[in-house]
Amino acid sequence: MVDEDRAPSPEEMLRVMEEQNVATVRWLYADSVLLYVPWGVAWLFGFTALFLHYGLDGHSYAPITQMQGVGVLMAGQLVAGSFAAFGIVRMNRLVRGGTSMKGAMYGYAWFAGMLLMTVIALRLGPQLPPEESGLLWAGSSLMVVAVLQMAGGAVWGNWPMFFVGAWVAGVDALGVLLGAGWHALLTAVLLGGGFIVAGLWLRLRRRK
What we know:
Elements: H1 10-30, H2 32-54, H3 66-94, H4 97-124, H5 130-156, H6 159-178, H7 180-207
Helix pairs in contact: 2-3, 2-7, 3-4, 4-5, 5-6, 6-7
């Protein structure tokens, strides 16, 4: 029997599994710009527009309507979501087996979470004042992002990804408690700017 025809040993199978996990983690670091920066840009511009509409004292700082601010945010998030979807598809092409299955299930979890959040906000939003309705949409969407970022970090053993999710959860909770204007400001600066910095830092870290 030639060497190519023999069954792989348990040690070889374990090595292959470890290589797949390492490849996935490397991919997450390598495309950190692709994963984080688009979301950071979307939140920076979108929530800045909403902050200028809400203000911190109940008065707008610029002639921007709530719907215009939401439009900027939604357009940016659609672009960012396209980048994220491309990244997940690319990851699944680079890995096989159980790791690929995890990536697919993780992608479906994002879709299901955002869909459920949209249904809840559509049902409850009209029953609230405009400012509180906007806060419901913003706070619940960031909650989904926070939970799934932390879950992704747990699935792939990626601590930076987990901590990013925890950071999103903390900022989101504080902003919801303070009100719509503060939520928009904190999200724009700490999450929008923070995601841009995190993506660039992780890319630089991998190159060292």
